[in-house]
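Hey team,

Filing this mostly as a record. A colleague (T.K.) asked me to run one chain through the structure pipeline before their review meeting, and I want the input and output archived in the tracker in case anyone asks later how it was produced. No errors, nothing strange. Just documentation.

Input sequence:
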Amino acid sequence: AIVGEGMGMEDVKAIAQNPLLDGLRERGEVVADRGLLDDYLGFLLSRVRLSKRLEVAMDLSNGCCALTAPRAFKELGCEVKALNAQPDGSFPGHPPEPTEETLSQLRELVVEAGADFGVGYDGDGDRAVFVDDRGRVLLGDVVAAVLAQHYLPKHPGSAVVLDVSCSSAAFEAVERAGGRAVVSRVGHAYIMDAMLKTQALIGGERSSHLYFKEVWGIDDGLYASLKVAQLLSEVEEPLSALVDRLPSYPSRSKSYAFPDEAKFKAVADIASELKSRGVRVVEVDGVKALFDEGWFLIRASNTQPLVKMTVEARSHEALERLFREAEALIRARGASA
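Output structure:
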């Protein structure tokens, strides 16, 4: 069973915080297994084959992937250029969150070195944020769409799980490649659950968690980067060309402070108002309002006292119009930016 926020994690937390456990005298022991990294890398590398040598730039964020990613790519014959490559829990290079800002040095390195692509890992290695050969940081749904278009023709009819905030371009790419796009709630546990239930080939979140069937639907940042490398070794075009082949729709996101005890009711009230107006909505996670010119998603954060909004449209004019409409709905419930 998958355990996560909203899927049993609260029960585990309650058990762990039970004061009766404090009196237990029996304790387990920590056993060091020096072969775990070798086993892990051997498992991942047994599932990847590169058809040509690549040059890869990476920012390890002083996190756990510093122990694995350079070694994995070198064993595949790649030339590796690495930043922040020493594991250090104080994260001296930059915060262990790969963003446009924290990956600025990586973006420069990719372009200057002429690398095939760059990848920035987060601290615990379950996310990989990609930089194309032109130095552009790619959202996770874009990378999921590129992966789907490459791998789906080999597995026609397979499901691809995308979270509800992903771009319409990703859903369209899956359908064009002969796959079935499955919509999921945002979050690791929900995506993994959908991956297993649908036997999906690939899963992707806008936040750059990427999931793969051959590793039991797990989001593993190193494996994601190896699969992107395999893809690029099998085509003649650069990553930037594959990205540019996808439609690109303007989008905006914003978060609003909202008390935990009120955020879910606020979103439910917004959903009711939209439905009363006759707006088409999807309520997989919060409420996603669908229009001919685009959509907006309003959802309560699972982990913070926030209501989050994402808007996407076919044009910049429509984007601003939908943004104002969605923001008005949120502010009418007492939100503060």
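Quick notes for T.K.: Residues 43 and 215 are 9 Å apart (CA to CA). The radius of gyration is 21 Å.
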